[in-house]
Predict the 3D structure of the following.
Amino acid sequence: MNDVVPFGVVIAVISVAGLLAVLSNRVSERIRVPAPAIFLVAAAVASDLVPVLGRVPVLTVQRVVTVMLILLLFDGGMHIGWRRFRAAGGAVLWIGVVGTVVTAMGVAVLAHLVFGFDWRAGLLLGVALAPTDPAVVFSVLGRREISGRSGTLLEGESGVNDPVGIAAMAALLAAGTAGGWHAVGAGVASSSWRWSWVPWSGSPVGMRCR
C-alpha cells in the first residue's frame, strides 16, 4: 500500500501527457505528420531534459502500461461493438497475432541484412514497430473515416496486437538479462500468460457498454 500514492502521481502525470498528446492533433493536422510521431519526438526530448524519467521503477512501468492498455481496449470496444467484432473476429485475431509476429520477424531480417543490426536488436526494433495503431492511419487520412469491414479490422487488430507486442518485448528484454536466447521461450510463455487477460478485461466491457 505504500506505493499507491506514488503510483497515483505517476498516473496523474501521464494523464497530463495524454492531454498534451490530444492537443498535438491540431499541430498534426497543420503539418500532415501523424500525431503519435510528434508525441514520440516530444517524449524523447523530455527524457533527455528530465533524467529522472529514466529511473522509473520497472514495476511502475508495468502497472501504468496495464492501466493504459485496458483503457485503450475499452475505448476500442466502445467503437467496434459486439456485432461488428463478431463478423470479423477471426480475421482480427489472425492479423493481430500472426500478422504482428510475421511483421516483427520481417523487420528484424531487414534490419539485420540491410543495416547490420545484430539479431536481438533487430527483433527489438521489429517488435516495437510491428503493432500498428489506427491513430497513425487516421492522422494520415485526415478527417476521412474508414468504414465497413476494413474499419473493423483496423480498429480490432490494433487492440489485439498490443498485448502480443508487449509479451514479445518483455520476452526479448528478459533474454538480455536472464542468460541469453534460451530465456526467450520461457519469457514468451510467461509474458503471454501475464498479458492474455488484458484484452478480455477491456474490450468486452466496452462492447457491452456500447
